[in-house]
Amino acid sequence: MRMRSTMFQKSILAGAVCAIMLFSFPLLGHAQQTQEEIEERKEELRNELENINQQIENQQQTLNQLRGERQSLQRDIDILNAEIRQAELRIQRLTASIGELSKNITSQEQTIEELNQTLQRQKESLAQLLRKQQEFDNVSLAEVMLSNEDLSEFFKDTAAFSSVNKSLQESFRQIARLKGRARDEKATLQSQQEEKMSVRAQVRQERQTIEQKKGELAELVAIKKSRERNYQDLIAQRKQRAREIRSALFQLRQARSIPFGDALSYARTAGGRTGVRPAFILGVLRQESDIGENVGQCYLRNTQTGAGVGKNTGRRFENVMKPSRDVQPFLAITEELGLDYENTPVSCPQSYGFGGAMGPSQFIPSTWGAPNSASGYGTKVANTLNVSVANPWEPRHAFMATALFLRDLGAATGSRSAERQAAARYFAGDNWRSRGLRYADSVLSHAKDIQQN
User: Fold this and answer.
1) What is the pTM of this model?
2) Residues 49-80: pLDDT tens digits?
3) Is the distance from CB of 336 to CB of 371 less than 8 angstroms?
4) Strand, helix or coil at 277?
5) Can you tell me the distance from the alpha carbon of 438 to that of 85, in angstroms, rounded to the nearest whole number?
6) Rounded to an integer, what distance in angstroms lies between the CA atom of residue 91 and that of residue 79?
7) What is the rounded distance in angstroms from the CA atom of residue 410 to the CA atom of residue 277?
8) Nearest to 167 by CA among 137, 125, 139
9) Residue 251 belongs to some domain of the structure
10) Are residues 436 and 304 in the same domain?
11) What's the rounded Cα separation, in Å, for the pair 153 and 146?
12) DSSP structure class, residue 413
């Protein structure tokens, strides 16, 4: 990890502080405020922020409740959709039944037609038989006998007469059977037609019921979504205001360095947790940011290239932040803290490498880590201090981060050589031998002065 030394910039600090006081966030009120006025304003903003956070929490609970109701409603919709699918299957079955009935009706109609044709043929045959019988009825037995030359012809005529009578009787019976069957077929046809009409009515009713339920549920879902959007808008407004207040508090906090009494308290607490000497922790913070007086003079502007500008000069810097390593963690950190990344100061690049270091301890974003990053020092600080999210610009958090990192670099043994190597690695990482030893010696000199005084 490469940290940024800022001691060489002390000559411009007075002007920078004045610029902060003169041109700070609009919520600061008026320029050149006294320390007492700044503290009063900070207290007002903290109270407003606490109130807004409570509103956000309450509105979020209401929103979650509405979402829960919508999820319950969605379950009802899922059940209805299942019922709709069942109803559609019933409609398919009924439609198939209508098709089968239509086939049966067609068959019945054909049967009836055939019966009618058969009945007609029977009637025509019966008419012929009746005419034949009429002919026999118009001739007397004596005339039949006299008209035949021999007895055999007489008996032939008599047999013909008997056959006609039998045929008539059979025709009568056949016609009666055909009429009875025709009546039955017509009754069946009528029943099937009535069943077909009933099935069609069921299909219409099923479809009407489905459409009605769909409409009712769609209306309820629309109402729920509308209410959710309203609460989402309210929450977004409250969060925006919270971000503005945090930015104002951030600017107020950067308007002065950390009081030494507070810094000593933070260092002792951090040293007690990590075993790192408090004076050594203070020596690193003195070297890095003059104990919070200068936490960076650049702003990130281009998240693709890592380029930015000077905070007070507007001068363009190409390497404010390494894009492949630090930009995304930095964006995640500022978003989690409700800060505007374009107006959150970080260190400017030196003659080599990149800038982008944050807060009094000047951690680069990738070493601090995005929120909830398992390996980042932000997560280690949050776990150590039992806070939800660590803030690299919060002095107490920054001191703890420095102590934890120095401990991991071996400084907890307390020996001069261990502290010297830890300080050099704090600044230059693996290049500590070539780039970090002068930095380490300066840190140890600050630590000695602090220890003695």
Assistant:
1) 0.55
2) 788 888 888 878 887 887 777 677 677 777 77
3) yes
4) coil
5) 77
6) 18
7) 12
8) 125
9) no
10) yes
11) 10
12) G
